[in-house]
Write a structure and sequence with these properties.
The protein folds into 2 domains: 5-128, Rossmann fold (3-Layer(aba) Sandwich); 139-209, Arc Repressor Mutant, subunit A. It has a 6-stranded parallel beta sheet with strand order 2-1-3-4-5-6, with helices on both faces. With 216 residues, it is α/β, with parallel strands linked by helices. The radius of gyration is 18 Å and the shape is globular. Helix 2 (39-49) runs parallel beside helix 3 (65-75) and helix 3 packs parallel to helix 4. Helices cover 50% and strands 14% of the residues. The chain has 10 helices and 6 strands.
Length: 216
């Protein structure tokens, strides 16, 4: 039997944790193997639990999700962390992305969306609740040039842009395209310069608004 996906839930509301745990444990491929009520408790338990995916609330006592995500990824850089929140405030979105989160889910998600998100994250992609697309197309997009200024991208740059938006790291992109990481970094720098973006998040926004990538 194939081993189930191990999920760790971090949220200060026990009622919400129990509900989320019940939904996840009903999925054939996943199970909840640990839970914590705040970021500090999560970090203390992390080394003993070794989850595949962490679903973490942003606003919690003692240590919030942003700080806990940053510290967890310093110690376990391959850990896949997804932010959970009731708020679609862009400040939280940007802070969690900067901390290294692979996805962002509003707490009112359906079982179907959660299922889709877990499978996408586990396969190496990023996932954001549909409600957050407005954030990428309306807010972060100001990081890039205006639509009317057409930018010419090479075939390779378009390939790399798609893989960046799929959530792949520089090394994963290099392996996929059979090129060196240094070459990937070079292409990424060119993309940032051409679009006048400051980060991968800005590139994602620019690519979505200008329909340069396929959203999966």
């Amino acid at each position: 039997m194939e081993e189930k996906l191990k999920i760790f839930i971090v949220d200060d509301h026990e009622f919400f944790r129990n509900g989320l745990k019940m939904v996840i444990n009903r999925l054939k491929y996943a199970k909840v193997t640990g839970e914590a009520a705040d970021g500090r408790e999560f970090l203390e338990m992390l080394s003993r639990n070794e989850p595949d995916i962490v679903l973490i609330d942003i606003q919690m006592p003692r240590m919030n999700g942003i700080e806990a995500t940053r510290l967890a990824l310093e110690e376990y850089p391959d850990l896949k962390i997804v932010a959970l929140t009731m708020f679609d405030d862009e400040e939280y979105v940007q802070s969690m992305i900067d901390a290294g989160a692979k996805g962002f889910l509003l707490k009112n998600i359906t079982k179907e969306v959660l299922d889709q998100a877990l499978q996408a994250i586990q396969s190496g992609k990023k996932y954001y609740s549909p409600e957050l697309w407005d954030f990428f197309t309306r807010k972060v997009v100001n990081d890039g040039k205006q639509d009317e200024e057409e930018i010419q991208l090479t075939r390779r740059e378009k390939e790399i842009l798609q893989l960046i938006c799929d959530g792949l790291s520089n090394k994963e992109i290099a392996d996929r395209l059979f090129i060196s990481e240094r070459t990937v970094v070079g292409h990424k720098s060119n993309l940032l310069a051409k679009t006048n973006c400051k980060s991968s998040v800005g590139l994602l926004s620019y690519a979505i608004r200008n329909k340069l990538v396929e959203i999966k």
